[in-house]
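Researcher: Please predict.
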Amino acid sequence: MKAAWAVLAAVVVSVPIMALPTRWSADPDPGITRYTVGTIGGAGTNMIIACPDGRGADVSVTVKGVIAPSDSPIGFRAANRTIVMRSNGNGLMETKSKANAQAFAELWQAVRAGNRLDISFTNGVSASLPLAGSARALPVSPCPVDYRPGKLNL
């Protein structure tokens, strides 16, 4: 009987751990594909790369329920590379600027090649996300960016 309780307790305790999304996933919807890792909502930590049809990619990051600070550099480290993207007024990293467009391509390749993604905000908030499955979920070529040389990139 004690053995049955021990097994039941182990299952109950391990269920939340097994339910944590620790692998990258690709979620294609009509008009947009989202590449996601982490826990969405609440005090979760996650990264979402949104690739809408006909528009450039955007990156959103939440660390322990806190979105990226607005108008701020956001640091990423994966595959022995350090990448910095600047967030907009809503904490979203758009690919409209030349710097963010270049950083996005580097981030994409680092995420595909790495084992862990370290994220840091200028306010000291930081976290790590696993990159298991990222090379399968993310295609070799990154999503298009909004930045176009010679185009008015607002």
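Model: Residues 23 and 132 are 5 Å apart (CA to CA).
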